[in-house]
Design goal:
The chain is mainly β and about 180 residues long. About 0% of the residues lie in helices and about 30% in strands.
Length: about 180
Amino acid sequence: YCSSLTSIVIGDSVTSIGNYAFSYCSSLTSIVIGDSVTSIGDGAFSSCSSLTSITIPDSVTSIGDYAFNWCTSLTSIEVSEDNINYKSIEGVLFNKAGTELIQYPVGNSKTSYDIPISVTSIGDGAFYGCSSLTSITIPDSVTSIGYRAFSDCSSLTSIEVSVDNINYKSIEGVLFNKAGT
């Protein structure tokens, strides 16, 4: 809740950013994360409403749940190419293998998003608060959808699922397990 904080430089002596360390820093526009940081805690930058982009250095091996949720101006989450645990595809945060979609940037203005075919898991809160999205398409490879994955997506009118998906289906744009139960 440091509402007047506008920028942060986290030095190379820091190895961990704690849970909710910078949450609700509403004026924060610039973050430089040092090359010794290995973990970013749960909600570490959540509700930093002025933050437009962030770059994860190659040293980061762990990113907590909801680390960037409700960052309403965040259009891109970038990752150092040398990071062995994470990567960014068009500003969206994934694990390095591309099998888990971890965080879609809330401030991205796209109205639709097709989840890449490499994805098998959608992380907890991955699309939390993405108010611009009206449509999401889930490929047949997705076997797991995390807690609150699509919570507070106020414009979302359709979740479509590949007919070949063995775990989920869509009925009139509504997401169900395959059995429909």
